[in-house]
Each structure stands twice: as C-alpha cells, then as structure tokens.
Amino acid sequence: MVNSSSFSGFDYYNALFFHTKMNAVLLIDPNGIILETNDAFGLSFGYTEDDIVGQHFSVLFSDADKKKDLPEREIRMVLDTGQSFDNNYMVNKDKKLTWVSGESVLVTNDKHQKCILKIIQNIHSQKESEYSIIRLNNFNENILGSILDAVIVIDNDFEILKANRSFTQLFNFSDQEVAKIDFKSFISKFDVNSELYNAISNIFQTSNANSKVQLDIDFAGAEPQTFDISCTILAEEGEQTRVLLIFHDITAQKQVERQREDIMNFVAHEFKNPLTNVMLSIELVDAMLKEKGLSEFNESMQLTRNNARKLNKLIDELYKSTKLISGNFDPERSLFDLDEMMDEAIQSTRQLFKKRAIVKTGTANVSLSADRDKISQVLTNYLTNAIKYSDGNEGIEVSSKIENEIVIVSVKDSGKGIPEKDLPLIFNRFYRAPEAKSSEGLGLGLFLSKQIVAAHGGKTWVESEEGKGSIFFFSLDIATS
C-alpha cells in the first residue's frame, strides 16, 4: 500500500480547478448558489463567470429535470452523504442540451465552511453514439420483423443467434425454444443430402461471400414446401463469424414450373408421332417424284425436308429438356476413355464444319464411369456453340486436365465473347443472347449441358470477355463420375 504522506504538499485543488481542460468544475454553496467556475466549464458550455456566478445551479438543469426536483435532491444527497452522482442533460448558454456525467463532493475548509465541489464531464458524443446504435438496432429489428421470409443468423457452432418472427411461425417455435436449437441437428431431417450443411460449412471455412441451396421441407400434416435458402457471411466481430440464412418459399413457383413442364412434355410427345409420319410421307413423295422424273419439284422437296428436320430437332430438344428438368434422367454409366470420346466428338464436329479448325491442346488421360453419350453431347454442344458464335476462321481449342481428383474439360474460342450482363444467364433454359436470335435452335443446348453434368454431380461454367472470346468448362469428379 502506498503511503499517502509521501504525496503531501501537492496542491491537488489548484491542479484540478485551474489546469484541467476536459473536467469542468463548479464551486456551489450549501444553498445551491454557484460561487466559482473554472475555465474548462466556460470552454465546454459557453458561460462566462458573469453569466453564471451568483446564480442557483438549477439554471444548468433542463425543465424536465427541474420538474423531477433533481437539483434539490442532489444538494440534499451531498449534504447528507458527502457526495452524489448524476448523468443527465445540462443546459448550455445557447440553450442547447448536452449530456454530462457529474460527481459532487462535500468539502470543508480550515474555517469549517462547507462547499460543494461539482466535477462535470461532457459525454454527449458517447450518448449520441449509444442512441444511434439503439435506434439502428430497433430499425433493424423492425425490418427483420416485417420480412415475410424466414430469417436466422447462426454462428460457427450452428447455434441460432437471432431469428425473425417468420422463422418462429414457420417452424412453430417460441422465442425461448429458438435460442436452444442446434440448427445442424434440426435441419438434418430435411437436408438429407447435407447440401445446406455443406454450403454453410464451406462459408465458415473459406469465408466465401454467399451460397444458395434449394430444400424441400416436409411439415407434419401438410404438403412439402420448397425453399430457396440463401447463405450470406456477415461482418466478423473479433473472431466470431456469422452466417445469415434467408428461407424464401418458392413452392408456388415450383408448382407452376411443374405444370409448364407437363404441358411442354405433352406437346413434345404429341407432336413427335405426327411429325414422324410427315417425314415418312415427304420421303415417299420425293421417291415418287424422282421415279416419274419430275425434277422441277426437287428444290421444293428439299426445302420441305429441311424444315421437317429442323422441327424434329426442336421437338427433340424440348423433349430432352422436360425429361432432364423433371428429374427423370438417370445417367447410364459405363467405363470409357475420356480422350477417345473427345476425339470422336471433335471428329464428328469437323465433319459438319469442315472449314473450321478444332485443335486438342491438352489431355487428362483418364477413364470415367459416366454416361458416355450424354457427356459427348455436352462437349458437342460446346463445340458447335464455339463455332456458331466465332467470327471468321479462328481455331477452336479443346483441352482436358485433372485438378484435385476432378477432371476439367474446356472449349476455347476467339470469337465475339459474351457481354458481362449475359454471363449469369447463359446456362438458363431458352435463354438466347440478342445476337443469337436469328440462329437456329431454342436456346436449350447449354441448359441441357448443365443438366447432364449436374446429373453426374459435376459443374458447368464459362469465362468470357466481350470481343476476345469465351472458354466453356465442365468438370466431373473422377472418384464418383
């Protein structure tokens, strides 16, 4: 313990009263009359000694605090106990209010005269910051409460830190129950393939910005609902990372899509047989005309035949599309050499586009267990697209490589490239860039490619720069493909 006598002789009062810059000091008599102020008080609140000395210190209190009898209560507290504390508004000379924190102590001089020493600190900025945070939190809570989608925030232990009203209502939880939920265990009964769990874990492990997962949730006694769940990383607080999950109900949208698929499937199926008969009739009529030597009809018959084939191709694409999107496509897996399949696809494409150079620049030298015909269809779609949307006679480069037990196949062209705004849409069904509107097809080739690769557990993507060409990729896991 420090011996206080070693600090005797220091003039604490003068140091506090005359030399502090942040601590405003008032001397007040037992009746509450201000006797003296220091320079820091005037600098902080705008008063001069002439303004304030001789006034009752209640002039520094707001009207609301006067009605609460705070000045008199403070005087009584100091006189009875020797000190008091306050935290309230103080009135500046210009009548503005400033939040202050104060402490008053009773002091006695050598003549046994009593006086109150009041020390005041300006805490207005801190209080405003506190109120701003409170207002922001209230604002955020109001927004969260008004969102119809179910929203939760979880930490890296999969504990729910916050949940909005829509979430508790959706899953029939009380606010008390939500705080006790282990989200990993809770969601596992719906997330049978661990897609959502893996997406969230990947965000925590890699700090990826966001991810999306579609999940069917079966509520007891009701039809399953489909949710599009977005997972977004939130700003870190220290070492605590949090993820925001938004459950957007797309059940109605999915039902509309299924109805549309049924109609498209019906149309494709019902058109197929009549068109087959039409094509057979065209061939019979063409044979009869040739037999009778009516060559003047050759051009018309060829045009009719070409249009019938185009229509047949469009119906085939439509039928394949509905089959894939409905989930009825199950890959017919067999073991095959990837390079041989690529060589055949390249050769077939060369036969159709004899003036275009297609060069194989890299090889993975691997065998895959996958649907050979469908994977070949993907590569052929990439090749024909590369040729279709490339200018002049630029070459097409095809390559395959292995990275981390994944084989990646790419097709590179030096053509028009894809505008940045179109890149997120390029694999969508029926999507066709404006410059492709005049070309043949329904815009299903890339969509079908994506569905085929996804059915194998792989991924499709594109890299492109407008005016410099594009590279289309697909990847398959060697271990499971």
Short description:
By secondary structure, the chain is α+β, with helices and mostly antiparallel strands. The chain has helices at 12-19, 39-45, 49-52, 63-67, 70-81, 124-146, 165-170, 175-178, 183-188, 195-206, 251-291, 298-325, 338-352, 372-388, 445-455, and strands spanning 23-28, 34-37, 83-91, 97-108, 114-122, 150-155, 160-163, 210-217, 225-233, 242-249, 334-337, 358-360, 367-370, 396-403, 406-412, 459-465, 469-477.
Structural class: alpha+beta
Question: How many strand segments?
Answer: 17
Number of helices: 15
Q: Proportion of β residues? A: 15-25%
Oligomer: single chain
End-to-end C-alpha gap: 76 Å
Helix content: 40-55%
- Rg over CA atoms: 40 Å
Shape: elongated
Q: Mind summarizing the main beta sheet?
A: 5 strands, antiparallel
Q: Which ranges are low-confidence, i.e. pLDDT below 50, for 5 or more consecutive residues?
A: none
| Largest sheet strand order | 2-1-5-4-3
Arithmetic mean pLDDT: 83
